[in-house]
Design brief:
The protein is an alpha/beta fold. It has helices spanning 15-31, 83-95, 132-140, and strands at 2-8, 40-45, 52-53, 56-57, 61-68, 106-113. 13% of the residues are buried.
């Protein structure tokens, strides 16, 4: 499950803009083969007097915290050109029209990779990435019981 928490001023994104951004984020992960229901996007409004960067109020700041559980990108020696660098470039690309292109926002994001074995959906451990069972989950767009193979 990718969990995206997007912290910003309450008026930074309209409902339509939130929907479009959530769809872009979800499309990225479904393009990697994940079921759409794995993708959680939470917009967290932060009042101007509660958001500080460098000790100063930052009403135009968008801070994004991403937790990855379903997919992990292995670290490579030159990660700017490796899988992690590629992931960051892909995120920059799909965020660009929603955030960077606006020109009025400062923004930052980070990704934390949590162990997949510490994750459950509806009390069910997810099947292995890109397995036949996970493809069933993607097709049905929900968690269903499955049997672990030896």
């Amino acid at each position: 499950m990718p969990l995206w928490r997007i912290f910003s001023h309450p008026s930074t994104f309209s409902t339509a803009q939130r929907q479009a951004l959530a769809e872009s984020i979800t499309s990225h992960y479904t393009g990697e083969g994940l079921p759409a229901f794995y993708v959680d996007v939470v917009f967290i409004p932060v009042e101007p007097d509660s958001f500080y960067v460098g000790g100063k109020q930052a009403a135009n700041m968008v801070r994004i915290a991403v937790d990855h559980l379903a997919i992990h990108k292995p670290k490579q020696e030159d990660d700017s050109q490796g899988l992690r660098g590629q992931l960051l470039n892909e995120i920059d690309e799909f965020l660009a029209p929603h955030i960077a292109a606006r020109g009025d926002l400062d923004w930052e994001y980070n990704i934390v990779e949590a162990p997949r074995d510490l994750w459950k959906i509806q009390g069910i451990a997810p099947p292995p990435f890109k397995s036949a069972e996970e493809k069933v989950w993607a097709r049905e767009n929900k968690a269903t019981p499955w049997e672990k193979r030896n």
